[in-house]
Every structure is written in structure tokens, then in C-alpha cells.
Amino acid sequence: MTSRPSPESAAEATPGSVPESPADQAPESPADQASTTATATTPRWNRFDASWTIGLFGTAVGAGILFLPINAGLGGLWPLLIATVLIWPMTYFSHRALSRMVCASSNPKQDITGVVREYFGETAGRVVTVLYFLAIYPIVLIYGVGITNTVESLMVNQLGLDPWPRWLLSGVLVLAMSAVMVAGKKVMLVVTQWLVYPLIAVLFAVTLLLIPQWSFDGFGALPAPGDFAMSLWLMIPVLVFAFNHSPAISQFSVSLRERYGAGSMQKASSVLRITAVLLVVFTMGFVWSCVLALGPEGLQEAKDANLPVLSHLANVMGLPLIAWLGPAVAITAIASSFFGHWLGAAEGATAIVRTMVDPRQKRLSDRGITIGVSVFLIATTWLAGVLNPSILALIESLAGPVIAAVLYLMPMYAIHKVPALARFRGKASNVFVVIAGVVAVGGILISLFR
Fold it and tell me: Transmembrane segments in this chain: where (predicted)?
């Protein structure tokens, strides 16, 4: 069955052949782009596209999914229903806009940090680069702590082993995850598939396993309009960050530019659309199943105990399988999301070094910067895993408004101001993304100061 392309998809349609020489990768003028739009077709779906789809899915489904049902479900069933309807367009349109910013650059190998300098100037570019790094880097540290705690708990509670010294356990785990990133994007995408496919299967299995426990008791009453609006407002940021895969969008877009040339923008839309569908189906299916199985009282008990939802389910329902699935989900989710956030943190750190330490690019080689950034990320993530600081959760919350602004508001400003993105102006989706971004940032700030 075929369908007519929407005006937005037609606007981004471009040739799909892979360029064979540097000359073929030269950016087209607006006139050239317009002349090719009518006859352009999307490059056929292939393993490369599937790998990035799974990689982006893995970036989004991080450790936060273990607490997502609790945080989202406590707002009530009706706000959760509205949020479920809204989260797909919010996720797709926002990440598509960020990808368009990168794909529209005149330099096909330029990442988001270089794109911002190109569009907004050196000063604004440096500010955004620093904020971009500070928003993503703490999450890398949090995953270093999370993977150490999860594996230590598995060793003690499920395997009955004596725990390793924390410095050794954290070092082995952080080095193992970092080695995947140092090996390159191709290796990262392969390993991510090994992790994410089982993760999808486990999420689906838990969703089905909990169906016999479903109950709508306590969820029937429609809350007062004020309470309904506030619950929905506070729920939106939780879902935004559970579905956020922006740290990997820049390298994803650069990779598509290198492979598809002028057809990268349309291909990016296709990959991001499918990624958003997978996230809604499997993540929200998991959330709904957990919420209905636990009920309002069970969700509050899990929050009071500060336990991941699967750990609480194992304790209250007496399901031994859940006790094993919990660590499996946590480890695979943390590892897969760590990879995507490493990409963003390394990208930001590299840009900071190049623009502020060696702006003329004469003292430091690309290889030297890459090695230095990798050593920095490994050492600090290892240290965080050893120290196990509780302040990291607060850092993550403070980084939230920056991530929401970069993902939702900055691309819309670029579309409004940058000539290369002018053809995307005047779309209803732009208004929707701006409103969603303001709501998300406002909800985060309210939750911090309540």
C-alpha cells in the first residue's frame, strides 16, 4: 500500500545514492536541492539503517526505564493516557529537527558542535558546546555508578557470591563498556544490537507476564482539572528523558551524511520515525503493564522504598523470574544507553579542546585529542563508580533543562533563523515542538523547586 508524501517529507526528499567521490559529497545549492526534490526517492532500508535504529533505541532505553513506571504512573491513569498519545510526536519531531540541523550543514562531516558555530557564530557555538557537554557528561558518570551497583547486587543477591572490591568491579565494567566505544562506531553498533534485541525481548516478556496481575482499581476517578493538568505537566519531562536519544543524534546524522550524501535528511526521518515507534510500543507497553499490575498503592510503596520497579515486583509478587529479569534489564539498558551518551560526551569534550585549548589546531592532533578525551571519560567514570556519590542524581536533574532546550528549542530557533533550514519554516510540527519544549523545561523546573 502506498501513500502520498506529506509536504514535510516532500520538502526533505533528496537523491538516495551513495556518493562515490568527495566531489559527489559537495553540498547542493538551494536551487539544486529544489530541482531534485520532485524525482527523489528514499534509499532502500538496509542493515546500516537497522543498526542505527537499534543504537538510538538503546540510547533512549537507559537505566531510567527501571523507575519510569513509578514516576509516570503516580500521576494517575488519565494523565498517563494523554502523555502516551503525545510522546510519539514529541519524540519524533524533536529528534528529527535536531538531525536536520546537522544534515543541512555545508560541511558533511561536521557534528552538532561545529554546526552550532556555523549557524550562530563562534561565541554562541562555544557556549552551546559547553552546555551540551555538561548536560550529557554527568549521565555518563551516573551509568558508571549504576552498572557497578547493579552487578554488585546481582553477585550478592542472585548468585550468592562475595562482592569484589568496588575499585576492581567498577574498573572492569567501565573498561569493558569503554573498550566498545574506543573500538569505533561499527563495533559499537554491533554490540548494541547484541544488547538491545534481548532487552526488547525481556521488556516484552515482562509486559505479557504481568497481564494476569492487571487491575484498574483506584484508577477510575477522573481527577480535578487542576490536578489533572499538574500531573500531566510533571509527567511530560519524565517521559521526555526516558525517550531522549539526542546524545547520539549528531554522530548518527554525520554517519548518514557520509553514507547517503544529499539523501541523508530523508533517510534520517525514516530511521527516527521507526525508532520512535519502537520506543512507544515497547517502553510504554512496559510502563502500562507495570502500572496496572502494581496499582496506585504499589507504585507509592516502590517509590518510598527507592527500588526499581522490577525489584519491587519481585518482592511483592513472589515471581522468581522477575528477580532474574530485573538485573538483566538493568545491565543491558545501562550498557546500551552508556554507548550513546559516550558519543555525545566525547563529541562535546573534543569540541571544547579544539575551540578553547587549541583553536588554531596546530598543537594537538586529532588522534591525540581522541585519546585524551577517552582517557578522561574512562578515568572519571571509573572514579564515580568507586565513590558512588548520591549527588549525581541532582546533577542529572539540573542537566535536564539544558537537554530539553537543546533538543526542543534550539532546532526550532535554527529553523527560524538559518537560511539552510528555511524550507522547514511554517510547519505545524514546529509549533508543537516549541510548546512541548516549553512544557518540558517548565515541568523540570517546577519538579526541582517543589
Answer: 50-70, 76-93, 127-147, 167-183, 195-216, 228-250, 271-294, 321-343, 364-385, 391-410, 431-449
Task: Specify the pTM.
Answer: 0.81
Asked, for residue 3, whether it belongs to a domain, the answer is no
Cell of 132: 551540551
Which CATH number goes with the domain that contains 147? Answer: 1.20.1740.10
Alpha-carbon distance of 304 to 360, in angstroms, equals 53
Please name which of 369, 418, 336, 370 lies closest in space to residue 103, comparing C-alpha atoms: 418
- 59 belongs to a structural domain: yes
Which residues neighbour 212 within 8 Å (Cβ) at sequence distance 6 or greater? none
- The average confidence (pLDDT) of the chain is 82
The total number of structural domains in the chain stands at 1
257, burial (CB in 10 Å: exposed 0-12, middle 13-18, buried 19+): buried
Residue 383 lies in a domain: yes
Identify the CA nearest to 411 among candidates 5, 120, 123, 127. Answer: 120
Between vectors from CA 143 to CA 325 and to CA 281, what angle results, nearest 5°?
Answer: 50
Chain position carrying cell 534509499 = 43
| Residues contacting residue 176 through CB under 8 Å, at least 6 positions apart | none
Residues 182, 16: Cα–Cα separation, whole Å: 30
Give the tens place of pLDDT for each residue, 229-267.
888 888 888 888 889 899 899 999 999 999 998 889 999
Nearest-10 Cα torsion for 44, 110, 273, 29: -70
The pLDDT tens digits for 63-85 are 667 778 887 888 888 888 999 99
**Pairwise CA distance, residues 115 & 251, whole Å:** 12
Residue 188 is part of which domain span?
A: 44-449
User: Is residue 219 in a domain?
Assistant: yes
